[in-house]
Amino acid sequence: MSFIKEFGSWLPSRVVSSAEAGAWVGSDATWVMNVSGIEERRFADAGERVSDLAARAGADCLERAGLTASSLGMVMVASGTGERNFPGPACETAKKLGAEGVPAVDLPMASAGSLFGLSLAARLAAQVGPILVIGAEKMSRIVAREPQERGVAILFGDGAGACLITPDSGRAEIVDSFLGTDGTFCDDLTLENGAPLKMNGRSVILQASRKIPAAIRTICERHSIALPDVLAFLMHQANQNLIDKVADTLGVASARFFSNIRRYGNTSSASMLIAACEWSREVGFQPGQPVVFAAFGAGFNWGALLARGV
Q1: pTM > 0.70: yes or no
Q2: Which residue from 97, 110, 263, 284 has the fewest beta carbons nearer than 10 Å?
């Protein structure tokens, strides 16, 4: 048994409007909004590293939880935009947090990394102690690469989210998770070293709109939970149209799917935890009420996690 203790987040101060982003690809803010639901996103400074973003979100989470970095059993950092092949940002993040000697693990996964991290941490916390899971991405460095594709460059932003998983107590118990991978589509969403991001948008949307609802249904059916009884769905913020499509497929009101993509864009593996952090401050877990996390990303990797307020 493991628990969600607290969330944290960090967003850069620079706001990039969809009018500015649309101009990069010869379009305007109205078109960007129609295809993505994004009005603005945040970009980090040129000199800031993924580990800087991650450490700030992690520190926010630890401060809210009243825990010191030295008391952690592990630090996990999910990111697809680390500055080098190895070492990844996890070791730098742990150092910047003051978690000296604490094992730091990289999950080099785009979009679904934080969900996989939560699932793994829920299983490891009883063995190693509190685990800080962080999703951090600097997508601005990627979308600036030429050639900028019309349907790609306008989607992304920078940021970091964090979640503290503990073995003893917290705001919500992690009940179960379901994870899946299908390498058949591994070439449909890729980021080669030094190259621009390549995305087969039709394939990504088609597979995500099938696999996310199936994962959510699987995790709820395992525990005899009716979808209308779920307090909230906290999903990777990929595209507002996708979020709405998943809600429609499940027959759940879109309002039950927390969304902040309008303000931050798609922050890849950071997005689900940034959304969860904001939701926890605005609404939060309720005793006995189920909450479902879900994500889909490159690989293709996807899944869902069920938590219940305590």
Answers
A1: yes
A2: 284
Query: Would you say residue 149 has pLDDT above 90?
Result: no
Quick one: pLDDT band at residue 308, thresholds 50, 70, 90?
A: very high
Nearest to 147 by CA among 25, 20, 16: 25
Tokens, residue 14: 């620079």
The predicted-structure confidence for 208-262, as pLDDT tens digits, reads as follows 999 999 999 999 999 999 999 999 999 999 999 999 999 999 999 999 999 999 9
How far, in Å, CA of 155 to CA of 223, rounded? 35
The token duo for 57 is 């979100």
From CA 118, how far away is CA 281, in angstroms rounded? 19
**pLDDT 10s digits, 206-217:** 999 999 999 999
What residue has token string 């994962």? 215
Q: Which two tokens stand for residue 63?
A: 């401060």
* Three-class SS of the chain: CEEEEEEEEECCCEEEEHHHHHHHCCCCHHHHHHHHCCCEEEECCCCCCHHHHHHHHHHHHHHHHCCCHHHCCEEEEECCCCCCCCCCHHHHHHHHHCCCCCCEEEECCCCCHHHHHHHHHHHHHHHHCCEEEEEEEECHHHHCCCCCCCCCCCCECEEEEEEEEECCCCCEEEEEEEEEECHHHHHHEECCCCCCCEECHHHHHHHHHHHHHHHHHHHHHHCCCCHHHCCEEEECCCCHHHHHHHHHHHCCCHHHECCCHHHHCECHHHHHHHHHHHHHHHCCCCECCEEEEEEEECCCEEEEEEEEEC
- As a whole-number percent, the residues of the chain with pLDDT over 90 amount to 96
CA distance 81 to 192: 11
Query: Residues in the chain, how many?
Result: 310
Report d(CA 305, CA 174) in Å as an integer: 8
**Cα(137)–Cα(252) distance, integer angstroms:** 30
pLDDT at 1: 87
